Amino acid sequence: MEADRIAIVTSGAGFAYDADLPLLVDALREAGTTAEAVAWDADPAVWGRYDLAVIRSTWDYAGRVEEFLAWADTAGAATRLWNPPATVRWNSDKHYLRDLAARSVPVVPTRYLEPGETCTEKDFESADGIVVKPVVSASAQDTARYAPGQESLARQHAEALLSRGRGVMVQPYLHRVAEGERALVFFNGVFSHAIRKGPLLTEAGVIDNDRAPHPDVVAYQPSAAELDTARAALAAAPAPQPPLFARVDLALDDLGEPVLMELELIEPDLFLSHDPAAVSRFTRAVTDRLAQDRTG
């Protein structure tokens, strides 16, 4: 029987910086597949050569989102694509948080400003400050927090994004994020491992697109409440089956309860090197899903 041909989908940045990429390719080859890393913007004809394409480190997609979504449709028509095109499209715009909140998932309170709308400094008032970010972004690009008294700066930031046709999110700054953000990783809907990382927006009023996106990462054992919140977010995602991979990013609110910051279903760093069994779990998830597809 011919080995399954698997494309691990990446990008120029992924080839350069994704430390998990060679680990996953090697593990899948050891599991008996023919796996290789392929850039998402390669020749479109390549996707029909594979039995499966697994999106991983397509880390430049946010700056080329329409092109990337068109690619997902093309690749998904040529082969199995995980996560699938409909999931990718839904998850590419952070308006999805509104969908999850409507399904009773505890989400960081979020207001959206749309291109063409006007805003005032009152839109950026909050006791602990606020965070301004575009609805389409990755790695906290074009994102900043603002302290009380910096409402004018926050408004300028939002208006600059809106003037470029970009939707904007305004969220209260959760001061307990100083205790660390949690990232819980799931494969085929089953919890695998978690990490905690240091706060990202450490300086108020500063947009720093060169900051490290995941500072001070350490392995982490999530609480029962954090696992429940993460599972609720996954269950509320509009998909007929659990995603092949997911990262659920949480923080604590003022009462110490976990709230969803983001549900990452496209190209999240899965921190495979922070758990000794994570690579094998992901590999098993891929081979199990292939087997399920064959049996219908």
Give the topology:
Blueprint: E1 5-10, H1 12-17, H2 20-30, E2 34-39, E3 52-55, H3 65-78, E4 80-82, H4 85-91, H5 96-102, E5 111-113, E6 130-134, E7 144-146, H6 151-163, E8 168-172, E9 181-187, E10 190-197, E11 218-219, H7 224-236, E12 245-252, E13 258-264, H8 278-295
Parallel strand pairs: 1-2, 1-3, 3-4
Antiparallel strand pairs: 5-8, 6-7, 6-8, 9-10, 9-12, 10-11, 12-13
Helix pairs in contact: 2-8, 3-4
Task: Write up what this structure looks like.
The chain has eight helices and 13 strands. It has helices spanning 12-17, 20-30, 65-78, 85-91, 96-102, 151-163, 224-236, 278-295; strands spanning 5-10, 34-39, 52-55, 80-82, 111-113, 130-134, 144-146, 168-172, 181-187, 190-197, 218-219, 245-252, 258-264. A five-stranded antiparallel sheet has the order 11-10-9-12-13. Helix 2 packs across helix 8 (278-295) and helix 3 (65-78) packs antiparallel against helix 4 (85-91). The radius of gyration is 19 Å and the shape is globular. 37% of the residues are buried. The mean pLDDT is 95.
